[in-house]
């Protein structure tokens, strides 16, 4: 089987992190975002993966070269010379996606969920139609495109964009599976899969919806990246994952959902949790208090610091008695001096901060 | 040697409202500044003056408010007579002095009288003032200080003859800029001051008889009613201090004044300060009854009152922690005043901005927690004024919490 991942552009919404790393390589719960997806695809029998990109960062090529070898798959970079929106990249990768009659997956790179690709594939093969889209239930559907099915079936009847009255609460989760004949509907030009391709398939009664169980989150921006991290950690807790730090063995775990890379050092007097991710080589000092935050690899959080609702970038340094909160994002190699207060700052890489940032702002 | 006496003008409970919320529970003269009551600083300086036999404190606080301090001061300075004289009603700075003239002038009759306002923090260069005073033939010598042009009009502005140090003009809080040299709130007068006050008083009574807008009361202000005519008559001289000086009108200024005094202690009387160590950065004052965890980091510019308890890994800097307060582990207090019997939870943060030179209306810099304020674990209070007996479990910034 085959898959296409819509990576797109520079991931500007996740800056300042994406100034240092291409977005697919930014760690999500200690693993590159794209690796979560590739591993799940491979588990469902995918051998050929196409990355639809607007640019081709060398670092991504070399990282994924290793992945190719380890997993025994082929990863192809399909580079768009002009942005082709969400459907155009399928036409561009036609040679790979249409090389045989097996179906192919399409997914948005920003989406995190449990990736139940095997069940999704089985569902798709069972109904035998042209396409299937994953849907997820949301509490407030009015900001999304809602998927409405024909009564008593999984066949999609119509899409209602930003509904004013309640028509359902299932929304497009950004994960699809298609028979290769769908490629005949797509030309090589900027085309929207949601607005142009789906309505045509729906008109032919060939598109089914599949209910995604469990969490779903678009992690394309810092606030949602943090929220998505919490959802993923709760999923690990619910499945009794051995990746999480065991509160009965580590007295510094408070409230659970704490994921610590084995190479990180955590002082026993620190208090971590709930919802904390500590990356490789990170050092957490004495009396540090962390909650709802992500500390990326090789960062240092010094004694008595307090961090909540924030992302501390790679190789960054949070000073002693410093308080960091309110969706602060520190880029790569940022230093926050001792005793400061940092409220909702976005700090670009390699900055040294020596005075408090009391109101949310971007530090260039 | 000529007999000298000192007078400290402390005002009363209806004054010093800008010191709220601290002055709600502690009279302003007794607020701890650098670990000592505010009034202790001028008193200790006066006690060092050679030939000074008596210090008279004038104000309209009840006797019981001042009696504890007077008792302690008498014990600390046994060779000096220390008395508190209570005005039956506010008489103005000069009115109060005149009202108690017999007490001030009684034997041994002083040749010179120092007068200090309660609300200035400075090095009290009293010996230098005396040296200048004995060289001129004026009635009084005033301590002056040069301030920034933007703030000068908030003070009593002085114009001098730079050759003779003679005061040629004085205006209290002028509308427009006159001079960067301002009244430092410390004076040295000959005993003939009382003749000058008498003249000013008669003058006022005479004006009251002619002008119905002038009230025929005893209220007489030292600055406007006495120093202005003395300047006009070329009877005042000016000693300009180059050392530290700060007015203490607002609660925020207490932190600044405290740190100025602590830095001065480091030079003049380091024995008053806590010994520097890995966890204590000088200058810091720690009351001997306070308990500080060895992993906490304290200072510089910190004054910690009696029975305060500071937990593991706590951080205190540029702050006053008043009697009986508790700072739990890993809490952090910066640029703030923590009032009596407050409780700061673990990882809570009490944070302020340093006091600006010129006050901006409606903008809070230093955080002030009044008596018995409780802060829940991990909460942040930044640039807030918190009134007594509040329990805070949410973050707050830039506001007054009633």
UniProtKB/TrEMBL annotation, chain A:
GO terms for biological process: GDP-mannose biosynthetic process. Residues 256-363 form the Mannose-1-phosphate guanyltransferase C-terminal domain. Its EC number is 2.7.7.13. Residues 2-232 form the Nucleotidyl transferase domain. The keyword Cell cycle applies. One of its GO terms (molecular function) is mannose-1-phosphate guanylyltransferase (GTP) activity. Keywords: Cell cycle, GTP-binding, Nucleotide-binding, Transferase. It catalyses: alpha-D-mannose 1-phosphate + GTP + H(+) = GDP-alpha-D-mannose + diphosphate. Pathway: Nucleotide-sugar biosynthesis; GDP-alpha-D-mannose biosynthesis; GDP-alpha-D-mannose from alpha-D-mannose 1-phosphate (GTP route): step 1/1. It is an enzyme of class 2 (transferase). The keyword Cell cycle applies. Belongs to the transferase hexapeptide repeat family. This is mannose-1-phosphate guanylyltransferase.
From TrEMBL, chain B:
It comes from the Eukaryota. SUPFAM superfamilies: Nucleotide-diphospho-sugar transferases. One of its GO terms (molecular function) is mannose-1-phosphate guanylyltransferase (GTP) activity. It catalyses: alpha-D-mannose 1-phosphate + GTP + H(+) = GDP-alpha-D-mannose + diphosphate. Pfam families: GMPPB_C, NTP_transferase. It is an enzyme of class 2 (transferase). Pathway: Nucleotide-sugar biosynthesis; GDP-alpha-D-mannose biosynthesis; GDP-alpha-D-mannose from alpha-D-mannose 1-phosphate (GTP route): step 1/1. The keyword Thylakoid does not apply. The keyword Transferase applies. This is mannose-1-phosphate guanylyltransferase. Keywords: Transferase. Transmembrane segments: none annotated. Residues 5-203 form the Nucleotidyl transferase domain. Its EC number is 2.7.7.13. Belongs to the transferase hexapeptide repeat family. Residues 280-397 form the Mannose-1-phosphate guanyltransferase C-terminal domain.
